[in-house]
Design brief:
Its EC number is 3.1.1.-. This is Pectin acetylesterase. With 402 residues, the chain is α/β, with parallel strands linked by helices. It has a single domain, classed as Rossmann fold (3-Layer(aba) Sandwich), CATH 3.40.50. 29% of the residues lie in helices and 15% in strands. The strands form two sheets. Strands 4-1-2-5-3-6-7-8-9-11 form a ten-stranded mixed sheet, with helices on both faces. The chain is globular, with a radius of gyration of 20 Å. The two termini are 18 Å apart.
């Protein structure tokens, strides 16, 4: 039953994303069969996959490598649920994927990156591409090999032309946004020395805060993810040398030591974090937060006060990013999870604005160094009339979320 509900969630999310798409193109899947011999496989042992749209004109030697999101699995039970879905097996993935927003090939919808080589790495390991466990239990046949997948896909892209890259941007959404932070310097190290390499995280800045009951369940959860996937050796050593590996899954503990330029796109009211970190179901047995979780407009005054305090904690967690122009941020007050993949929030006539800038313009200005002021933080909710909201009840789908 739980596996069925998970598949229903995946289908629902796919449908919701399609509704948000405005213009773009379908891109076929590429299966990395050669990765199997390297042990770089999805949870079920199937080969990893990606979608690749070739660049044109002046963008022929520029690359965007975007990592798909989809939560995490923290133990054998939750990973088995994922194993039978597109989040755990390339056998379940769509043959084509829609590229929009940051991945759009239309100049007036994606002016700075439309003609780049654009890649979307499919997410099928459940550990933000950090896991690496050699032994496979024959009882469950689960493979925890996310770190190998990342390297195997990058190696294939290098062979397909990325070895000639002049500019390269590693990006991702949600769990993929976290991966773009954790793998930022690794990505830079894998590319030619002369390449300009930068990283972009969308809705991947998950914070280590207490929930409404006073417990730090996200800290415990991330610790379980890291232990299950054997992730410690693929997390930044500068962090694991001073903190427990589970804490090094939080961007706030690693971001200050990342060498490559990095940009954070996030809302200070991320509904995923509100639903799963601040007010998870286990901390809300009476269900008093369910309406607020789904629609911030339905929060009671007391609940809104707690949500505003979460924003304060979120902004504090961003402080290690520092103030360098090479470290940008676009932190709006919208109630939405992921904003770079869909046209309406990336670049559109009604896209969210900060200082009269869309997310697309802010990221482009940062990447091309057109501005010395690359850090934009919105006022508190409900101040921004340009905001979009699009949420789902993540707590109904165990096996993907907390």
């Amino acid at each position: 039953m739980k596996s069925k509900r998970m598949r229903q969630w995946v289908n629902l999310l796919d449908f919701a994303l399609l509704l948000l798409l405005a213009q773009g193109s379908y891109v076929p899947i590429t299966i990395v069969n050669d990765a199997v011999s390297k042990g770089a496989v999805c949870l079920d042992g199937s080969p990893p996959a990606y979608h690749f749209a070739k660049g044109t004109g002046e963008g022929i030697n520029n690359w965007i490598v975007h990592i798909e999101g989809g939560g995490w699995c923290s133990d054998v039970t939750s990973c088995l649920w994922r194993k039978d879905s597109r989040l755990g097996s390339s056998k379940k993935m769509e043959e084509q994927l829609y590229f929009s927003g940051l991945l759009s090939d239309t100049e007036n919808l994606n002016p700075d990156f439309y003609n780049w080589n654009r890649v979307k790495i499919r997410y099928c390991d459940g550990g933000s591409f950090t896991g690496d466990v050699e032994k496979v239990d024959p009882g469950n046949n689960l493979h925890f090999r996310g770190a190998r997948i990342f390297v195997a896909v990058i190696d294939e892209l290098l062979a397909k032309g990325m070895k000639n890259a002049e500019n390269a941007l590693l990006s991702g959404c949600s769990a993929g946004g976290l991966a773009s932070i954790l793998h930022c310097d690794r990505f830079k190290a894998l590319l030619p020395e002369g390449t300009t390499v930068k990283c972009l995280s969308d809705a991947g800045y998950f914070v280590d805060v207490k929930d409404i009951s006073g417990a730090k369940r996200i800290e415990e959860f991330y610790g379980q993810v890291v232990e299950t996937h054997g992730s410690a050796k693929h997390l930044p050593g500068s962090c694991t040398s001073r903190l427990s590996p589970g804490l090094c899954f939080f961007p706030e503990h690693v971001i200050s030591e990342i060498d490559a330029p990095i940009f954070i796109v996030n809302t200070a009211y991320d509904p995923w974090q509100i639903q799963n970190i601040l007010a998870p179901g286990v901390a809300d047995p009476g269900g008093s937060w369910q309406s607020c979780d789904l629609d911030i407009k339905r929060c009671t005054p007391d609940q809104l006060s707690v949500v505003q305090e979460f924003r304060t904690e979120f902004l504090k967690a961003l402080s290690p990013l520092g103030k360098s122009p090479s470290r940008g941020m676009f932190i709006d007050s919208c109630y939405i999870h992921c904003q770079t993949e869909t046209q309406e929030t990336w670049f559109h006539n009604n896209a969210p604005l900060l200082s009269n800038s869309t997310i697309s313009k802010a990221v482009g200005d940062w990447f091309y160094e057109r501005s010395d002021s690359n850090q934009k933080i919105d006022c508190s909710y409900p101040c921004n009339p340009t905001c979009h909201s699009s949420v789902f009840d993540a707590r109904k789908y165990p096996g993907i979320f907390l």
